[in-house]
Amino acid sequence: MGGVNVWLVGGGLAVGAIFAIVIQQLRFCLVAGTSNLLLIKDSRQAVAFAVTLLVGITGTQILELMDIVAVGDSSYRNSNFDWFGASVGGVIFGVGATLAGGCSVRTLIRTMEGSIHALLALFSFILVAAFAQFGFLETPRVDLTIATSVNLTTDAGIASMVSISPWIVLAIVAAGLLAFIIKNSKNGIDIKMITAGCIIGSLIIVSWYITGVLAQDDFNPVKPSGITVSGPLARFGYIFISGRIPALSYAISFVIGIAAISFIYAIVRGRFSFTMPAKGMAKMAIVGGSLMGVGSIMAYGCNIGQGLTGISTLSVESLLAVIGMVVGISLTTKCMEKNA
Q1: 130 — phi, psi (to 5°)?
Q2: Residues 86, 299: contact at Cβ < 8 Å?
Q3: Rounded Cα distance, 118 and 194, in Å
Q4: pTM across the whole model
Q5: Are strands 80-81 and 150-151 parallel, antiparallel or unpaired?
Q6: Is there a domain that residue 1 lies in?
Q7: Which of 27-36, 209-218, 219-228, 256-265 bottoms out in mean pLDDT, i.e. has the lowest?
């Protein structure tokens, strides 16, 4: 395949396809999980997300601690601790995702189902993310990072920063997630949601194994990575800025897999239909998508990149980004509820 790493491209496409089917079938979304818990005390989505984290974090940590995958070499745990960008970027992303009516992956999937509202949000996301990553917003973003980030003597992992055994950190995190799941499942367990959480959590682990083991080449080594959406979307936006087509990678193939299977799935299941935005909602889609774009680049990832892959490395930076996203979603949800 002319120098293309088959494991990276094929693995990304396959994982993206499975991911898309699970999301489409069960409508799994961080925005929905947070807002449903806040507004109607429906914890099913939140529990599914907790299951995803429990499976993904446990599996990823075992891969690292058993020296199977060099998870610590990934960008999520570098020594440049950008606490401000992760936190504020997370909040901005959460606000944008709520205004747009869904997170980055839900917006992508709904676009493939024919939603013009989602298309407006997605295009805004792609364009602004590209400007923040490669265009005129790059310089102020980098200057802000330099001014606020802290250079650590170690990596940004929880265990390293608090100087305790990573096994102890894993045990505490796993126990906390398990307690949340049990507490919020007293009124019954939604088997479909739990299954979705287990599958998505497993895809996090599989992604680390593919990129950290199967795709490794002594002559062309690659850093282990996982599933993410915002980075690849920004690179697609780079096409509009530079006219250059980005090289295929695991993350880009993952997004292509999501888009392709979402479209096919929508056609096969009769869900594809061009739908116009509700009155006055087009502006919300554009503003929300734009905020998601700049927020995700500031936070070094969206609810998938930071919220699933990054958090599985037990990175403090990823944890701050996820907390910021939840805060942004919560505040915006409450504000929109009051003004409804």
Answers
A1: -65, -40
A2: yes
A3: 27
A4: 0.92
A5: antiparallel
A6: no
A7: 27-36
Please tell me the number of Cα atoms within 13 Å of 208 on its side-chain side. Answer: 31
Tell me the C-alpha distance between 20 and 259, whole Å: 8
Residue 126 DSSP SS3:
helix
Closest CA to 327 of 44, 93, 141: 93
Between CA 318 and CA 168 the distance in angstroms is 19
Tokens of 62: 């075992």
301 within domain boundaries? yes
Note whether residue 181 is domain-resident.
Answer: yes
Query: What does the alpha-carbon distance between residue 229 and residue 294 come to, in Å, rounded to a whole number?
Result: 13
More confident: 28 or 117? 117
Q: Which domain holds residue 170?
A: 6-339
Looking at residue 119, its amino acid is: L
Describe the crossing of helices 250-268 and 6-26 by its angle, rounded to 10 degrees: 40
Task: Label residue 1 by pLDDT band (50, 70, 90).
Answer: very low
Residue 330 makes CB contacts below 8 A (sequence gap 6+) with 34, 38, 94
Average pLDDT across the chain, whole number:
91
181, 45 contact by CB (below 8 A): no
The residue type of 72 is G
Matching residue, tokens 């961080």 = 30
- H/E segment holding residue 260: helix 250-268
Model confidence pLDDT, tens digit, residues 232-248: 999 999 888 887 887 88
Q: How many domains does the chain have?
A: 1
Which of 104, 308, 105, 303 is closest to 202 using CA atoms?
308
Structure confidence by residue, pLDDT tens digits, 258-277: 999 999 999 998 989 999 99
**Rounded distance, CA 326 to CA 59, Å?**
24
Residues 6 or more apart in contact with residue 63 via CB below 8 angstroms: 69, 71, 205, 208, 209, 212
User: Is the predicted pLDDT of residue 14 greater than 90, yes or no?
Assistant: yes
Kindly state whether residue 57 falls inside one of the protein's structural domains: yes
Between CA 187 and CA 189 the distance in angstroms is 7
> CA angle, corner 62, sides to 193 and 76, nearest 5?
80
